[in-house]
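User: Just a sanity check before I run the rest of the batch. Below are the structure tokens for the first item. I only need the designed sequence back.
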């Protein structure tokens, strides 16, 4: 038996808004800023913008599909699952649909 509280998951608070997410790519920390409505997400990364449609599976899971893919890799949808939430951030797990390799990240609400 585990004692303690279950992780907080107020996913509704993070369905829309502006967020930042940092990831280490080739040893260098890079930041993506994204703006999300219920059905559209616009990402800004290294001065470039990209748009994706959003299909919500439930309150804490959704699938992103790039609206203007530039190559085969960008055509593949991405499954995102919010694992835990806090006051101004959430931890999520993501993977390309059909791929078993999962990655984790934390996004911070900026509006």
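Assistant: Here's the designed sequence for the first item:
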């Amino acid at each position: 038996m585990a004692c303690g509280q279950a992780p907080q998951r107020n996913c509704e608070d993070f369905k829309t808004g502006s967020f930042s997410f940092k990831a280490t790519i080739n040893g260098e920390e890079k930041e993506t800023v994204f703006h999300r409505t219920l059905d559209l997400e616009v990402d800004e990364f290294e001065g470039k913008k990209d748009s994706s449609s959003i299909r919500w599976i439930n309150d804490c899971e959704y699938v992103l599909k790039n609206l203007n893919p530039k190559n085969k890799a960008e055509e593949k949808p991405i499954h995102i699952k919010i694992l835990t939430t806090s006051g101004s951030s959430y931890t999520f797990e993501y993977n390309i649909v059909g791929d078993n390799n999962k990655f984790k990240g934390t996004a911070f609400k900026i509006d």
